[in-house]
Design goal:
Number of domains of chain A: 2
Distance between the termini of chain A: 69 Å
Distance between the termini of chain B: 41 Å
Helix content of chain A: 25-40%
CATH superfamily of the largest domain in chain A: Response regulator
Shape of chain A: globular
Strand content of chain B: under 5%
Largest sheet of chain A: 9 strands, mixed
Number of helices of chain B: 15
Strand content of chain A: 15-25%
Largest interface: A-B, 49 and 51 residues
CATH class of the largest domain in chain A: Alpha Beta
Order of helices and strands of chain A: HEHEEHEHEEHEHEEHEHEHHHEEEEH
Helix content of chain B: over 70%
Oligomer: heterodimer
Low-confidence stretches of chain A: 1-32
Structural class of chain B: mainly alpha
Order of helices and strands of chain B: HHHHHHEEEHHHHEHHHHH
CATH topology of chain B: ABC transporter involved in vitamin B12 uptake, BtuC
Number of domains of chain B: 1
C-alpha cells in the first residue's frame, strides 16, 4: 500500500469510529419507573405508509382521549418505521427493546412481519401485541413457541368461518375464487372454503393473481361461467382495481369478499360498482352502536376520513393496555403477568364485546357487511358504507370447529383445503 | 498499519457500546464483507454487478433451510455450513458468470440484475422450501463450547470473518492475479493483446466474489435470526453497490466504510429523524457529483484542490 493509500484509509476510519462514539453518547438512558414505554412498529414510508398512518392515528387518538395517562402511568409512545419489510421490522423491534427499553411493542402489518417479530419477543422476553398481523399459526400451531405474543386484532381465517356457512344459507352452490397469491390470501380462502364445503357448497376454481396485480385482464376471462358467485380477497391497490375491472368485464354474479377487500381503508375510493358486495370482518365503520358512532365522528373530525379497521383495532389495543395497567394501579405488572392478564381480558369495545382466548387470539363478533350507498350518522352526503346484515357473536379463531381437531389439520395454504371440485 | 490499529480499536470498543449498537455494528460488518466482495468486481475489475444480493441470499437460505429442516449447523457443523455456503455462493456465481461474462458495461449490469431477480423470485415463490414471503425463522444461533447467541460473542465471530475476508481479498488484489484484474479494468484489449485470457480472469473474480457473498449470507442469517425474500431483493444489491461507491471503489476498506455509513444512516438515523431518506439520498448524490473516489477520496481531493490553489498563486 502506498503512503497516500495509508492516509486515505486512516482518515476514513477515524470518521467511522467518530460516528460510533457520537451515537454512543446520545444513546437513551433508562427512564423513571412510572413511565410506560410502548414501542410501535408500522410502515411510515413505502407502499403501506397509509395503512401505517391509520394504525398510528388510532392508537394516538386513544392516548389523546386519556391525555397520555394510563391510570397514573405516563405513556411514552415511540413509533418506528418498518417500511413493511420483515428484516427492518426485526431491527426496529431490537432497537425499541434494547435502546428505548420498552415494556412492550405493538404493530406490524403483514403476516410476514408478524412471523418475523414473534420470535424477537420470545428471544428478548418482551410482550409483542399484534393488532393487525393476522397469520393464523401465530396463535394456533406455533402459539406455544411465542409465549409473549398476544393478538388483539384477528386471525386471517376467523371472519371467514361463519362467512362460508352464510354463503350456503344464501343458496350458493358453486363459487369461483380470485385471491391474492400469498399466505394471507390462502388463509382467508381456506377458512371460507372449509366451512362452505362442509355445508355442501363447492369451490370450483381458484385463481391466484400475484400480490400487487393491477391488471386483471388475463385472469377475468378464465372465471368459470357456471359459478353462482365469486369470492375475492384483495389487498391495497388490488382492492380498488379488481371490482372496477370485474364490473367492466360484464360480470353479473354476486361478489363476496374478504374483509380487507372492502374495508373502510379502500371503500371511500371505490366506485358504485361495489354496491351489493358482501364481506366479513370484526369491524365496520357503519356499526350502529353509540360507542362506534362517537368514534367515527370524532375520528372523522380529526383526520378527515372514516376510520378503517386499522384505526379501530389500534384504538382498542390501546384501550386494552390501559385496562391492564388500571387493574395494576398504574404499574406494569411484569412481562409474564401482563401476558397472563391480557389473555384473560374481557372488554366492551367499539367493535363489540371482545375477550381473548387461551391461545391469545380474540373471541369477538364477526359482522357480515353489505356495501350500500346511504347517509349515516347525520352526514349529509350519500356515501358507501359497510352495512351490517348479520352478526355472529363470540366467534373464536376455530369457528365452528373443535379446537383440538382443528389444530390437527395443517394450516390453510395454496393447496389446503385441496380444490376437490376444480376442473 | 492504520487499518490494523483502527480494527483493533473497533474490536475493543464495541462490547462497551449499548446492546443495540453492537447489533448494528455486527450487521454493518456482514454487509461490509458483501460490499468488499463487490468491490473486487466493481473497483478492481471494473464490473458493476447488480446481483450481489443473490449470493448473500443463497448463503442465507442454505443456512436457514439446513437449520430448520435438518437441525444442521447449530453446533460444530456451523463451520461446515460456512464452507457449504461459500461453495454454493461460488457455484451460483459460476453458473451466473457463464451468462453475465458475455457482456460488459450496462449489459452486464442488466444481466446480473436479471439473474439476481431470479434468485429473489425463487425465494418468494418456492413456498415449500423457502416459506414464501413469510421467510424462515432460524431456531437459534449455533453453540459449540461458545454460545453465539450472546451478541458480543457473535460480534467477535463476525469481526473475525470480516478481518479474514479483508486480509484474503487484500492478498488477492495485491497478487499478480489482482494486478491483471486492474489491467483489465484499465484497458481490456491491451491485456488481451498481451496474451492474458481476460474472460477467464474476470470469470474467476466473479466466482470468488460469489463465494464471499455466500459467506456473508450465513453471517447475515444468524445476525437476523430470520431470512426473508426482502433480504434478496434488488435493493440489497443496489445498497451493496452504493456502499462501495460511497466508501471508495478499488480500496476494499472503502466498501466497509460505506457499509458502516449506510447501516447507520438507515437503521440509526431513521430512529431519530423522519427525513433520514433525504439525507441518505442527498449523500449519494453529493458523493457521485463531487467525490467520485468516495469517502476515501476526500484527502486526495483536498490535496488536489490545495495543489491547484498553490499553482494558481504561483502563476499569478
Amino acid at each position: 500500500m502506498t503512503r497516500t493509500g495509508k492516509l486515505r484509509v486512516q482518515d476514513g476510519l477515524i470518521a467511522f469510529v467518530g460516528a460510533l462514539f457520537g451515537t454512543y453518547l446520545t444513546a437513551a438512558q433508562p427512564a423513571a419507573a412510572e413511565e410506560l414505554r410502548i414501542g410501535f412498529i408500522a410502515p411510515m414510508t413505502g407502499p403501506f405508509a397509509q395503512v401505517g398512518k391509520d394504525m398510528v392515528n388510532g392508537f394516538e387518538m386513544y392516548m389523546n382521549d386519556v391525555k397520555g395517562d394510563f391510570a397514573g402511568a405516563t405513556v411514552k409512545f415511540i413509533v418506528e418505521d418498518d417500511q413493511a419489510k420483515p428484516p427492518t421490522g426485526v431491527l426496529k423491534a431490537e432497537k425499541l427493546i434494547r435502546q428505548d427499553q420498552v415494556h412492550m411493542f405493538v404493530g406490524g402489518v403483514l403476516a410476514s412481519t408478524g412471523y418475523a417479530l414473534a420470535p424477537v419477543s420470545a428471544r428478548e422476553k418482551v410482550v409483542y401485541i399484534s393488532p393487525i398481523a393476522a397469520a393464523d399459526d401465530l396463535t394456533q400451531r406455533d402459539g406455544a413457541k411465542y409465549p409473549y405474543f398476544v393478538r388483539t386484532g384477528w386471525s386471517s381465517s376467523q371472519p371467514n368461518h361463519p362467512f362460508g356457512e352464510w354463503a350456503c344459507g344464501e343458496g350458493y352452490k358453486k363459487i369461483a375464487v380470485v385471491a391474492a397469491d400469498y399466505a394471507f390470501g390462502y388463509e382467508q380462502v381456506g377458512g371460507f372454503q372449509k366451512t362452505f364445503e362442509d355445508c355442501g357448497g363447492k369451490i370450483i376454481q381458484k385463481i391466484w393473481p400475484p400480490l400487487g396485480t393491477i391488471d386483471f385482464g388475463p385472469f377475468l376471462p378464465t372465471v368459470k361461467q357456471d359459478a353462482d358467485a365469486i369470492f375475492t380477497l384483495m389487498v391495497g391497490p388490488m382492492s380498488l382495481q379488481f371490482p372496477k375491472q370485474l364490473a367492466a368485464s360484464g360480470n353479473t354474479k354476486p361478489v363476496l369478499g374478504g374483509g380487507t377487500s372492502y374495508d373502510e381503508f379502500v371503500l371511500p375510493s371505490m366506485g358504485d360498482e361495489v354496491i351489493g358486495h358482501v364481506s366479513a370482518l370484526q369491524y365496520s365503520a357503519a356499526l350502529e352502536n353509540p360507542k362506534n358512532e362517537a368514534f367515527v365522528k370524532k375520528y372523522r373530525a380529526k383526520f378527515g376520513k372514516v376510520p378503517s379497521y386499522y384505526s379501530e383495532t389500534n384504538y382498542t389495543t390501546a384501550q386494552m393496555i390501559h385496562e391492564i395497567i388500571k387493574n395494576n394501579k398504574g404499574n406494569f405488572p411484569g412481562q409474564e403477568e401482563f401476558v397472563k392478564q391480557l389473555a384473560a381480558l374481557k372488554l366492551d369495545t367499539i367493535r363489540g364485546p371482545v375477550s381473548i382466548d387461551e391461545m391469545r387470539n380474540p373471541v369477538q363478533n364477526i359482522y357480515l357487511k353489505k356495501v350500500e350507498k346511504k347517509k349515516m350518522f347525520g352526514y349529509d352526503k350519500e356515501e358507501l358504507w359497510n352495512t351490517v346484515i348479520k352478526t355472529y357473536p363470540n366467534v373464536t379463531q376455530f369457528g365452528q370447529f373443535n379446537k383440538e381437531e382443528f389444530l390437527k389439520t395443517p394450516v390453510y395454504s395454496r393447496d389446503f383445503p385441496p380444490c376437490k371440485f376444480c376442473n | 498499519m492504520a487499518v490494523a490499529g483502527l480494527l483493533i480499536a473497533l474490536g475493543l470498543i464495541t462490547p462497551y457500546t449499548n446492546s443495540f449498537l453492537i447489533l448494528l455494528i455486527t450487521r454493518a460488518l456482514v454487509l461490509a464483507i458483501l460490499a468488499m466482495s463487490l468491490d473486487l468486481l466493481l473497483g478492481f475489475t471494473g464490473l458493476a454487478s447488480l446481483g450481489q444480493a443473490a449470493y448473500l441470499g443463497v448463503g442465507a437460505y442454505l443456512t436457514a433451510i439446513l437449520a430448520t429442516k435438518y437441525q444442521f449447523g447449530l453446533g460444530w457443523s456451523f463451520w461446515l455450513v460456512i464452507v457449504f455456503a461459500i461453495l454454493i455462493g461460488a457455484a451460483t456465481a459460476a453458473v451466473f458468470g457463464l451468462f453475465a461474462m458475455r457482456a460488459s458495461g450496462v449489459y452486464f449490469l442488466m444481466i446480473t440484475l436479471a439473474l439476481g431477480q431470479c434468485v429473489w423470485g425463487l425465494a418468494y415463490r418456492w413456498n415449500s422450501l423457502t416459506g414464501g414471503d413469510n421467510g424462515i425463522n432460524l431456531p437459534r444461533r449455533p453453540a459449540f463450547g461458545i454460545q453465539l447467541a450472546d451478541d458480543v460473542t457473535y460480534f467477535y465471530v463476525v469481526f473475525g470473518f470480516f478481518v479474514l475476508s479483508l486480509l484474503l481479498l487484500y492478498i488477492l488484489v495485491e497478487s499478480p492475479f489482482g494486478r491483471s484484474l486492474v489491467g483489465i479494468r484499465e484497458r481490456e484489449v491491451r491485456m488481451r493483446i498481451l496474451g492474458y485470457n481476460t474472460w477467464l480472469h474476470k470469470y474467476v473474480a466473479f466466482v470468488i466474489a460469489g463465494g464471499f457473498g455466500g459467506l456473508a449470507g450465513v453471517l447475515w442469517a444468524h445476525a437476523n435470526g430470520q431470512v426473508s425474500p426482502e433480504d434478496v431483493v434488488l435493493t440489497t444489491s443496489v445498497d451493496a453497490l452504493l456502499m462501495v461507491v460511497l466508501g471508495g471503489p478499488g480500496t476494499l476498506v472503502g466498501g466497509a466504510i460505506g457499509a458502516g455509513i449506510v447501516v447507520f444512516m438507515r437503521e440509526y438515523l431513521s430512529t431519530l429523524v423522519p427525513w433520514w431518506q433525504y439525507a441518505l439520498g442527498g449523500l449519494y448524490v453529493l458523493t457521485i457529483l463531487y467525490l467520485p473516489g468516495g469517502v476515501l477520496g476526500i484527502p486526495e481531493r483536498f490535496r488536489q484542490s490545495g495543489a491547484l490553489f498553490i499553482n494558481r498563486r504561483i502563476k499569478r
